[in-house]
Design a protein that fits this description.
There is one protein chain. This protein is an alpha+beta fold. Helix content is 58%, strand content 15%. The protein has two domains: 191 residues, Homing endonucleases (Endonuclease I-creI), CATH 3.10.28.10; 99 residues, no CATH class. It has a four-stranded antiparallel beta sheet with strand order 1-2-4-3. A four-stranded antiparallel beta sheet has the order 7-8-10-9. Helix 8 packs across helix 11.
Length: 311
């Protein structure tokens, strides 16, 4: 069972308000139904979703609904559920604001004012044409796929009103509205009241974020270690130059101590070297003091090299 299927099953088992649920049903039929003058036909792969839609229509409109169950053998055998509505078609489509005066309405004509209605509409949209990646197996991604650009832009606007920054992308002859932010996907699952799957998503997100943080810290430690080694090698070369050219006596006693312990501990960082020098010589020195000593050594080497070149 996919993560999308699990979410849709959880949503389908939730209780609903008979007034607010009309926007959910409206979105579902608008984006999933085949509509003609003879019938409204819904082809649904998820049994829980099919039961929910059947129950909502039956309770609100009190009509007979033909139910056909077929086995689909594409890739793997699975059942699909076909709901056919042949009664009160015009009334239902107008009541759900999908058709008006025998013409299909634009989604902008819904006038969804309350947050509950907007969430209900997006919930119906998700049940009809939404999907979400399992965070355990891939990146964070939630999408809806619709046929018309004006629908995609309206859905994007609706999500923005719910503080969700969706983007729209044309894919073949369809339009995809998608979210990539893990936090926003989690927020939407919470709005759907899919609490169990939201907790699953959050657990995976926390684990991945922690793992990424540890990896970043490890990479940072490795980078700092490599930087310390490279710095130490350069300083050892400067010390070697000083000794070869009898320049060590130009240094003060404190710098000579730092030079001595750098040779002894070539891989130590400035902080580590400061602690070692302070402990061994009983003369406290900090990281900045170590840095100052090596600047002196570097400047003496640089001046001597420049003088040799000029001579």
């Amino acid at each position: 069972m996919t993560f999308t299927t699990r979410i849709k099953e959880e949503i389908s088992k939730l209780d609903y308000d008979k007034v607010i649920v009309l926007t959910e049903l409206s979105a579902f039929i608008r984006y999933d139904a085949k509509i003609s003058s003879q019938a409204i036909t819904l082809v649904i792969e998820n049994a829980s979703v099919a039961r929910r839609i059947y129950k909502i229509i039956k309770e609100i409109y009190h009509i007979n609904i033909n139910v056909i169950v077929r086995n689909q053998k594409r890739f793997r055998v699975k059942q699909i559920y076909i709901l056919e509505i042949k009664e009160n078609i015009k009334f239902i489509l107008e009541d759900l604001n999908i058709y008006k005066n025998n013409k299909k309405t634009n989604p902008q004509e819904y006038f969804l004012e309350t947050k509950e209605d907007k969430i209900s509409f997006i919930k119906g949209l998700f049940l009809a044409c939404g999907s979400i990646n399992d965070p355990k197996t891939s990146g964070y991604h939630l999408e809806f796929v619709v046929s018309l650009k004006k629908d995609a832009l309206y859905i994007q606007k609706l999500l923005k009103e719910l503080n969700l920054s969706a983007k729209v992308l044309k894919r073949s002859n369809k339009y995809m509205i998608y979210l990539k932010s893990a936090e926003e996907i989690s927020d939407l699952l919470k709005m759907f009241n899919a609490i169990n799957n939201m907790f699953y998503f959050e657990d995976i997100r926390i684990y991945r974020d922690h793992k990424n943080m540890v990896n970043r810290l490890n990479n940072c430690d490795i980078a700092n270690y490599e930087k310390s080694i490279n710095t130490g090698l350069k300083q050892l070369n400067d010390i070697k130059y000083l000794k070869e050219h009898n320049l060590v006596d130009l240094l003060d006693d404190r710098t000579k101590d730092v030079l001595k312990y750098r040779e002894k501990y070539p891989e130590s960082s400035y902080v580590e070297l400061a602690k070692i020098v302070s402990l061994e010589t009983n003369k406290p020195i900090g990281k900045s003091g170590i840095n100052h000593c090596f600047i002196k050594i570097k400047n003496i080497v640089k001046k001597h090299k420049e003088k040799n070149i000029n001579d």
